[in-house]
Amino acid sequence: MLVVSRCVLRALLVLNILAGVSLLLLLGWSFLDQSRFLSAALRVSPAVDEAMFLAGFRIAFSAILPATIAAHLLFTRLLAILRSVAQGQPFASANGRRLQVSAWSLLVIQLCDLLFGYGATMADLAAGERVSGWSPSLAGWIAVLLVFVLAGVFSEGSRLRAEAELTI
Amino acid sequence: MPIRIELDALLQQQRMTQTELAQRIGITAPNLNILKTGKAKAIRFSTLSAICRELGCQPGDILRWEAGADEDGDDE
Q1: Are residues B47 and A163, on separate chains, in Cβ contact within 8 Å?
Q2: If DSSP codes are grouped into helix, strand and coil, which group holds residue A28?
Q3: In contact, A73 and A101? CB cutoff 8 Å
């Protein structure tokens, strides 16, 4: 299971960078060649209000960079935790800190999701139909809370373990 | 830690080496060294009792509080 997790995380690490760069290029295209971008976008969705559609798209895609960075931090920390498990030293204080970074990263991703949702809803309204497919997710917010709690429990557990190791 | 474990004089009195004491009380020599160098966070009553038994002393003979040492833990 650990080997599978490690492979999945490595794949996600690469996919995250590829997706992040691709989406940022798309955002850049919307600024550099606005008319061609709009005509390409409107082939997919015949927008009613072009200006609102473009604004919604740009707001939604402005969440891509922070979300990509946060996801990168999350995946690299999870990989580091997996490495420590493979080395037989999972209950180290470093893993408590890694879980804390993971929790903050998840929080940033959730906030980016809200920003994306705001922009996507604007684009949906401009297009007169639901083209983004975005919907709010409660599970993500619960995951943020869960990982923050786990990080605290882990930090305390690793502190107790370090103390027990130095009890002679 | 501000609490020091003083063993050298007692070991000398008993003509015992540190390794021998570690063997007699059932802990490893590196762990006894952790105790001696003040890196331990705590000492079990069973370990303290075994040291007192082997060195023929009271806990107060081996534990010493040192003012000015780091209260939180490592003083390195």
Answers
A1: no
A2: helix
A3: yes
